[in-house]
Amino acid sequence: xxxxxxxxxxxxxxxxxxxxxxxxxxxxxxxPDGWSSARWSSSGLxxxxxxxxxAAIYVFSAMTGGLKGAIASHAWIVTxxxxxxxxxxxxxxxxxxxxxxxxxxxxxxxxxxxxxxVEIKGEEAKRLIPMVEAAIAGYAYGKPGGYRIxxxxxxxxxxxxxxxxxxxxxxxLPADAVGRDYLPGGAFYHLDKDGRDLHLSLGGLAGLSVGVxxxxxxxxxxxxxxxxxARPGIKVPGFGTVGL
Length: 244
What we know:
Layout: H1 2-27, E1 56-63, E2 73-80, E3 86-91, E4 98-100, E5 115-121, H2 123-137, H3 155-165, E6 189-191, E7 197-201, E8 206-211, E9 215-220, E10 223-228, E11 233-236, E12 240-243
Antiparallel strand pairs: 1-2, 1-5, 2-3, 3-4, 6-7, 7-8, 8-9, 9-10, 10-11, 11-12
């Protein structure tokens, strides 16, 4: 009984309390009344394609809308061939399974500004773009019906899949990217292609990730707590990574 009480206490302290604090802070801010009144235009974060002709890859994340915006974000991928145009890829729950260029590459998401997860330019981007596109094309849930908001597969499951398939991108999604820990096919484990990150998951509802990019993470009901060693910080549910 004491052991169970300790487990419950840890869950309440590590996962529930920060989430409630985040939700409380979220409630004090102004938010759009709905989808139609939210801002979806370019944030101006990226230069125009003509201003920056070199090849590039970007992964962005932004907090989402509604009450889930207190703890959850939405991620997308942007690629640009040398002297080419930006190509944005999102996995959404309506219309075409994987949307292409349905928003500006650096657009606000539900009035929330995009956060840059990773940026790669030049020759390295030229080398990796075909690998990124292959991972996008090979996504197991890229067909109609391949979306479930919770625990996945959702928009973050899609981007996390690409990051795992192309570890050369050198990034993981923020801790608030609910759905990123859902492994395709309901798999229990996944070892990234370079063998440097291991992921264990019980259908996206609970799991563990450890490695060079992930650090040490514990996932509980989509909430992530842990430690980032590469970019020193603590991963706090509802707040993302707090730098040290």
